[in-house]
User: Fold this.
Amino acid sequence: MQITKIVNNNIVISEDKNHKEVVLMGKGLGFQKHKGDEIKSSQIEKTYVMKDHGMTQRFQEMLTDIPIERVKICNKIIQYAKDTLQKNINDNIYVSLTDHINFAIERYQKKMLFSNPLLREVRTFYREEYLIGTFALDLIERRLGITFPADEAASIALHIVNAEYNTRMRDTIDMTKIIQNVLKLVGDYFNIELDETYTSYDRMNTHLRFLAHRIYSGESLDDGAGLEEFHAMIRQMYPEEYACSLKIREHIKSVYSHDVTDEETAYLAVHIKRIRD
Assistant:
């Protein structure tokens, strides 16, 4: 591979064998180098492949001003997230999370710490991502001596959720509020306090995450053929829970203009029954 552009002493731009633009990172990779120089593979610590030139351009501009140690920390956090979640994570997270953590460190140095109003919800609804956020805070403290509050773990978690579902931060926050509102509706409907430690609570939370994503992606859970008997059975077996799921259906239609299918309504009733047992 040859250098097509030098960003700084540690970061250069090149092209892979498919002529796709890549960002390469490695200690001294660009030091005293010139355009056209060959790059030794042993010097490359990380290769970034962005989905388009615009994202690559934004990433290299951002890396120009960020200390290499912070970039390495973000790489480790993202790799830990990929290894832990075992899911496809949009590589744009290398831009969004690196930018966020760099800005958070700058705010910390200026003694400008902000609370995250969704801390409790993130800790509850996105438990795995939140734990990755706490890993990130531990890593930052060990490497940089900076101690962030738990609010920052929640902010990092939301960036990871963005990358999982390929959504914007605004949509992720709104999706979180959908889950929050539906669970509150269930609690108010039955006048109960939902136990967040129950496995059934986790299962419903997972279902609601996918429902929220379908709302913002404009998708629906299709009513499959031959499910009429399933709907009828759920209505008969769990009449109270099914009535509650109809309330949820009305709420989603009213607030988000999204049609919840009969199949989705029935599955909601099943999950509501489980968290009541």
Q: What stands out?
A: The chain has three domains: 5-52, 68-166, 170-276. The first helix runs from residue 53 to 64.
